[in-house]
Amino acid sequence: MNSRTAASKGTVIVQRRVVTAVLAAAALVVTAGCSSDDGEGPPFGDTGPPSSGTSSGAGTGTPSPAGAAEETPPAKGSVKVVRTVTEDLETPWGLTPLPEGGLLVSSRDEGTITRVDEKTGKKTELGQVPGVAPAGEGGLMGLALSPDYASDHMIYAYFTTASDNRIVRMLYDEKKPAGEQLGAPDTIFKGIPKGMIHNGGRIAFGPDKMLYAGTGEAGDPGLAQDKKEVGGKILRMTPEGEPAPGNPFGDSVVYSYGHRNVQGLAWDDKQRLWAAEFGQKTWDELNQIKPGDNYGWPVVEGKGDNAKYHNPIAQWHTDEASPSGIAYAEGSIWMAGLRGQRLWRIPLNGTKASAAPEAFLEGEYGRLRTVVSAGGDRLWLTTSETDGRGSPGDGDDRILELEVK
Q: For the Glucose/Sorbosone dehydrogenase domain, which residue ranges apply (predicted)?
């Protein structure tokens, strides 16, 4: 019985691994292998030698406003796998909880959205999203619920078509038969560059009820520094797909730029935006996002010494992370690692990390794709062993319920 199968059959308490500053300093001299979007390896990425470095600790961030007291979370955390919610999912990517109960999960390669009963694990397919053209790392990716979901029952989705990446919204009518519960997609934003890699894909409504989208540069690094392009950016728009009021570049949806490939978006308890980003040869990043800031790609990867570019607050070698989803809970950002096959905790103190990141679940469940808050000290976490780069075993892929601190 492999470790993932064994772990799914009972409660697992995973011992933490604290990443020390000494190891972090040593990692600076190690050269990592080239990383694609979802992590190095076939069929889409290069296959250079993996690095042996470890993550760095806290980085430089923007200070908190004067007088804004911050409570430093405990230096050490823990993760308990409470249970396996459901199994046998195919390329799960987006995940969002419904206010009335249940979880919606997208299948990247099948182009379907499925509702999972979080109590019983029962799966009900809502339907297939028309126009999805899965290839490489593209397909049906991020999901989000309308900020007015209680009245409009709209689901937003980010997906790859034959020509681009786009964002649509669809009416969800659970009274209709299974497989026929999705209305026709209404495209609110299109023209995001597509490629075999670096398609971005994460969407989320912020505390301001505006829609944020993490995009990739589709393998063309020059797009990231061009503010007229929407690839390699974080976008901010109204629910109708228009530039949101107060955006930093006038009548543009661009919110921040200089990104390689953003697949993690989350807000902390002070409504500050955080984003996880795939690196190339050396450093994956966790960034605290400021409107209008330049995050460096392709000029800088990881931390640099040029004040023109916003440094990450933490960084990891690509074999330790290749980060996709992130969530905020219990004073920390929790970051799912694909190639790294682990869940990272980054404790926060304002806009800085208050301690070195800690790794959990290392190798226990394989590749980890999406993590979302389940309220309080609970998280939902999806595995990603069926995405073409994993080694799927019995039960893969699955959704886990975690208790964290």
A: 89-389
